[in-house]
Structure formats: structure tokens, C-alpha cells
Amino acid sequence: PVLRHYALQAIVSMKDVEAAPLLIDALADESNDVFAVAAEGLGLLGKPVVPLLCDLLASGRADAQCIAAWQLGELQEAQAIPTLVTTARENGNRDVQA
Hints:
Elements: H1 2-13, H2 20-26, H3 32-45, H4 50-59, H5 62-75, H6 81-90, H7 94-97
Helix pairs in contact: 1-3, 2-3, 3-5, 4-5
């Protein structure tokens, strides 16, 4: 987990949008440190990852959905509003709704 954590930090520091799928996959890592780096890294990539975050919010694991909702809020991109509204109304995950 430590090596994955540092490798992911290096990838995040490059701020390359092509790393977004890797970061989304890393949200499934059992290490909280790896998960946290992936979550923060997605937010650093900005607007290009909004569609990926919307997909993750719609169909990801519960903890990944929470990260997607949080990052979409942080990015404040108008294109995410319909997905966020739908999630707030329909998603059964109370943590995501909060």
C-alpha cells in the first residue's frame, strides 16, 4: 500500500487527465491513504473529469459515490448540476445525499 500511495502521488502531481481512469480505479483500493490520494487527485484534474465523476456518482461504490459528489461540488461545473440533483433526489446512500 505504501508504494501504491507514493506512485499515485507522483501520478497526481503530473496533473494529466489521462490518469483519471487510474485514479477512479484507485478508489477501490483497500488502503485509505491510496483512496485519499485518488480522491484528491480527481479534483485537481478539474473540468475534464466531470463526466467521469458523474458516471462514478451514478454507478460507483458507495464510498466512491461520496467522493464523486464532493469533488463535483468542489469543481462547481454547471454540467454536473443535473447529476447532482438526480442523486440528491434518488440515491439511497444517505452519505451522498448529505
